[in-house]
Protein: Antibiotic biosynthesis monooxygenase
Organism: Parasphingorhabdus flavimaris
Amino acid sequence: MQLYPETSIAVIFCAQRTGVDEDGYQAAAAAMSELVARQPGYLGDDHARSGDGLGITISYWQDDASAKAWRDHPEHVVIRERGRGRWYSQYTLHVARVERGYDWQK
């Protein structure tokens, strides 16, 4: 994990995968990872996935405008719709302001 600047924006995406079309999902995920890394204001992300397909991705953004620009990016819109139709049975998304952050390593 990486510590992101205070007063950044966190977009918290929690989704349950269907298990359908794993190859298509992996290809789309790789393409979106490459694309998001090039977006203005993108700071990075944290993610985790359980064995039953529940995943959480938190992306961090310099400001709300940057996060909204990613939400509205045409290629991201296409993949989001494909995800709704094929790869996810449900998801939630929350946007929050990061006020403080701490990290620790052993």
Observations:
- The chain has one domain: 9-97.
- The longest helix spans residues 22-37.
